[in-house]
Design brief:
Blueprint: H1 2-10, E1 29-33, E2 39-44, H2 50-59
Antiparallel strand pairs: 1-2
Helix pairs in contact: 1-2
Length: 88
Amino acid sequence: MPELYNFLMERWALYHNLEYDSGEEKNPRLIFYNDKDEEVKVVPVKKMKADEISSLLDSLGFYKRSQKGEEVPEEFKHFPLKAPRDEL
């Protein structure tokens, strides 16, 4: 899964409020939770390209830093998804 590896090595740290769990290495997926910590959406990423994963996160309103270590604006610190939240 070279595309997933590329995303994890090059882009993962640029996004705010993402966690990585390597427990599902054979079937990697993004799991989205609401503010009550309830699972609301699962997206398999095994066949996705790095650009597709980035586009998905961008479309959901995850803040992407321009470089590692950049400060995250206040409005993105607690909940990364754009309103309306029920589109998930």
